Amino acid sequence: MNIDFSKHFCGEDGYCLDYNKAEMVILPVPYDGTSTWIKGSDKGPEAIIEASGTLEMYDIETELDVSKKGIYTLAAVDEKASPEAMVLAVEKAVNEQFKNNKFTVLIGGEHSVSIGAFKAYAQRYKDLSILQLDAHADLRPKYEGSENNHACAMYQAREVAPIVQVGIRSMCEEEKAFVNADTMFFRHQIRKQKTWKKEVLKQLNKNVYLTIDLDVFDTSIMPSTGTPEPDGLLFNDVIDLIETVASKVNIVGFDVVELCPNKANKAPDYLAAKLIYRILSIIYKSKQ
Hints:
By secondary structure, the chain is of the alpha/beta class. It has helices spanning about 10-15, 45-50, 85-100, 115-125, 155-160, 185-190, 195-200, 235-245, 265-285, and strands spanning about 25-30, 70-75, 105-110, 130-135, 165-170, 185, 205-215, 250-255. The chain has one domain: Ureohydrolase domain (Arginase, Chain A), CATH 3.40.800. Strands 2-1-3-8-7-4-5-6 form an eight-stranded parallel sheet, with helices on both faces. Strand 4 (about 130-135), helix 5 (about 155-160) and strand 5 form a beta-alpha-beta unit. The radius of gyration is 17 Å and the shape is globular. The model has no long low-confidence stretch (mean pLDDT about 95).
């Protein structure tokens, strides 16, 4: 069989071609219909999957090879008629994976691709919290004529489940009306707090959906985003938080969005792939 490993998450060493044997699925959503500055997040899923082929399958920190549980890469959700149509298509695709008991990872694409997942997970888990790691609040009720704009992702999230927001360092004045001081962890505040990860944990319900906009990271390690914002978190900050969360609650799914790949710098692509694999390793380690 002639296999194009660049189209399978984990590449030649860790891919799984048998859907029925895979516990995890990767769902690419290459949508970039509402981005307002740097275009290119529709190329993000392909770049992440390509970079994942260089990962080592053994994770040193968790002492686990999570690829042995089976990671299957699904066909991309390729609905581009409108943001509304895309959201419905994502919701349908996620619900299909629920039927088959698959742990689903969405890779975007802009942050609006997460909205369909929010709706699907909120219907399945009545005690769900949505944990957002992001530079931007994304709390606009509507932007540029659409409620499903990338700038509205977390407003849509709060309509279906309680949200907790971490790393935020940019928002418009309009969004202040929708900020919950108990569940908003601004970057400038957590920079001065040693216990902020435990405080985040206190705000979460038993089941958690994790949504990660890659611009939560500092631009020194993640310049390849549609709206880069300085003074972000570092890789270990994010991993330490996810380890804290996974040790106490059930992470039921997650997405990683907003990579705008740069052909001259592949390091951010690899960071995104490593992040996904490390999160899967942390989640499965917590279940042992």
